[in-house]
Specification:
By secondary structure, the protein is mainly alpha-helical. The protein has one domain. The chain has a 3-stranded antiparallel sheet, with helices on one face. It has a two-stranded antiparallel ribbon with strand order 4-5. Helix 2 runs antiparallel to helix 9, helix 3 crosses helix 9 and helix 6 packs antiparallel against helix 9. The longest helix is centred in the N-terminal third of the chain and has 27 residues.
């Protein structure tokens, strides 16, 4: 019988897909058996949201090599645009799965459009300058969502940036967005299964992009921008492509977020720079450029604060210590050397050590 030849990259991708499918199936089995607590069930959809956010941000930070601190802004755009669509179409499109699918696509498309509009002038910057501008972009989006009032009547849409009473709606009109009070009454269409499907779509698209010819061009820009330009690679084009794809998936995650809660607001830490930095922490601790690591780090670090609630006032102290220890484990040269030796010993034990590899 002829042995199938699967490349190392394909094998790694299948391991990532399999890991997500197994974890999702395990959660569904535990939920069906009534083992999961109500708080853990409430974590399932948000966990999928932040996995999508971390994986899509890793495309910018790890694969392209640029620092973006405005990822929560794209999530906010996707959340608001999809929620507005669903609220307006809830009586027109009564088939919830179709309405929700269109809402996700609209959220992703609107976030992608803003990714292009912001990316064209911004991606000529790099390093700290890019980080500061994207941070400002996220704050601008959040503040606009906090002051906008939007209503719909037979004459169309009405927008006001002052008071809801300034909308001057007809008798058949309804207010969709009410300033800092946000959007209420959004259909709760998000489920864990939909979240897992979106995670899988994100992984398939991003992993295939990374391992394609386009992905190699993007990584060459990350490694040496001048050398990449010298061989004819269009740096601006590929940067804009990555930024747009990343923004689109953040918008899709925002749509999932908006349809998971009855009320959507941009107040607090939901869409501000703290949210962007939290997602960046997931990326860094999981390993910059390591997609599988981003998934694992997001799951652990998202659940950990809730599981440490029994420590009360010391909860965040222990959480910070865990972050420091994980950072040291991931980035300490001694730990990296130890992990490499351990990896080679395991390969030697199972007879998979290559001739060029040796244990020192």
């Amino acid at each position: 019988m002829k042995k199938l030849n699967i490349s190392k990259t394909s094998r790694s991708n299948f391991i990532t897909y399999g890991m997500v499918i197994v974890l999702a199936a395990l959660m569904m089995i535990l939920d069906g058996a009534g083992v999961l607590s109500s708080s853990m069930r409430g974590f399932l959809v948000p966990m999928c949201i932040y996995i999508i956010m971390a994986v899509s941000l890793n495309l910018v930070v790890g694969i392209l090599g640029e620092l973006s601190l405005g990822h929560a802004g794209f999530m906010c755009i996707g959340a608001y645009t999809s929620a507005v669509f669903s609220k307006c179409m809830v009586d027109t499109i009564t088939f919830a799965p179709l309405r929700f699918t269109i809402a996700i696509l609209i959220g992703a498309a609107c976030a992608a459009v803003f990714g292009v509009l912001i990316g064209i002038p911004v991606l000529r910057l790099k390093g700290d300058y890019l980080a500061i501008v994207t941070l400002a972009f996220g704050e601008i989006i959040k503040n606009i969502c906090n002051v906008i009032n939007l209503g719909v009547d037979s004459a169309g849409m009405h927008i006001s940036f002052d008071k809801a009473s300034d909308l001057n709606l007809a008798e058949d009109g309804q207010i969709i967005i009410k300033g800092s009070q946000g959007i209420s009454g959004t259909p709760k269409d998000s489920t864990f299964l939909v979240g897992v499907i979106l995670v899988m779509i994100t992984l398939v698209v991003i992993l295939n992009l990374i391992n394609s010819r386009t992905g190699r061009a993007i990584m060459s820009i990350r490694d040496n921008r001048i050398a990449a330009q010298s061989i004819g690679i269009d740096v601006t084009k590929y940067k804009l492509m990555v930024f747009t794809i990343s923004a689109a998936f953040a918008g899709a995650a925002g749509a999932l977020y908006a349809h998971n809660y009855a009320t959507l607001t941009a107040t607090g830490d939901k869409f501000n720079y703290n949210a962007s930095i939290m997602i960046l922490v997931y990326v860094v601790l999981g390993g910059i450029g390591n997609i599988r690591g981003s998934i694992i780090a997001t799951i652990i670090l998202y659940i950990l604060p809730e599981k440490l609630r029994f420590l009360k006032d010391y909860r965040m102290l222990v959480y910070a210590i865990v972050l420091i220890l994980v950072m040291l484990y991931n980035w300490s040269p001694k730990m990296q050397e130890y992990r490499e030796v351990l990896r080679l010993k395991l390969k030697a034990k199972f007879g998979k050590l290559n001739k060029e590899e040796s244990i020192t």
